[in-house]
Fold:
Amino acid sequence: MPPADGRPGRGLPARVERWLFAPGDPRRLAAVRIGLCGLLAARLASGPYPELATQPPALFRPISFLRLLDRMPSPEAVAALQALALGAAVLATVGLLTRFTLPVAWLAALPLVAMTSSLGKVVHNDVLLLLCLLPLLPSRAGAVWSLDARLRPVARPGPAFGWPVRTAMVVVAGAYFFSGLAKLLHAGPAWVASDNLRWVLYAASDAQPEPNPFALFVADRPLLAQLVAAATLAVELGFPLVLWRPRLAWVLVPAVVAMHAGIGLAMHLDYSAMAATVLVVFVDWPALADRLRGPGPEPAGRSGPVPAEERR
Amino acid sequence: MEQHLSPGAPEPAPRWARWFVGVYLALFVVCGVAGLEAWPLTGWRLFADARQARQPGFEAVTVDRAGRETPIPFPDLPAGYRGNVQILKGFARLPAGRQAAVCQAWAEVVRDRGGEVAEVRIYQTVTDVSQRSGDRGAPPARSLRFTCRPGSAGAAG
Structure:
């Protein structure tokens, strides 16, 4: 548990704590709010929740708190939850009553997303999105770039705006690291050194209506398959380095996006929400906006220094 | 990465934020390291096992009155039916009544789509994906494990 008084300490835990709770740019937090809430709204609008609600009870394999039920929530309950979650997510995206609409969107989305993981297998695609949104719930995510901000004084960089974004960054980095760790713990070096990936890709291609040329291209070449497996493991285990050396985001973020795109092409598995979450959290959108805008007057909310670790 | 607060710097983050982040990240790390599933916290097991060329599996088919078998088209069915792999993997451990209810659900959705279903059969399969026939794998070896007939209380193994 971190010391509660905020006094600087020594050693790695103290350095991590100082990094987590250093001042941040309110625009960076706002950009993450807009990106993640917009993504949540898109997922809620297109999710298979009405179809899942009509599932026969015998096929229900509940996860987590849905074990309290003996079948999927009723279509009426799902429709109401979906409307509530979607409406709140849209309002949180534009920043209207953000401190209320953001938690409502998250809480109403939770059972809907749990439904997609109640078919017997955890669906990680939307889990990363939910976990990255969690630190934003009690934060001042609507302080700038929001409708709420029209009624308030301009927010300046400060400690209130740093920790939600950095916590989300730790969660993304941890998700990839633990994915790699699970491969090492359950399969060991064989995950790379054996023909594991070839057999995964052959099985994926055979399960599709037509042979998949991308899967077969890799699976037919044993050395290439091992190189792809090694690169996957290296990217996953190495992703936390981006927290220590932010410039590595130029390599690691495109690498995980490419990894998800490759999985989509070869295996027809949709990890687009996970890839989009990584982009929203790790791209420094205010810096990008400044660069696109070119030299000019300082924008509102950016009169103070930007922590060095946020620059790329 | 290290930050030094200068005199006149803003107040540090509030105590509640430190506790909130500390507890949240601690739970996140514990689940990740131990592989615990406490959804939405998760152990992040994505493709974690090393696959072998010979891959065990199951296949569910419907049988019409003439004895013709048709694989149940799970990918084309509504989302609620797409947990077939996990259901089939655990089918043998289900109580007889639940086995019958599962078969009944599959039979009904096939009938709703115009299929004729006299019974549902579940085969255990072993597919050797290293045996290729052009761009396709060789057909799996199958052995019948369960047969569900209408009105029966369970599946005959």
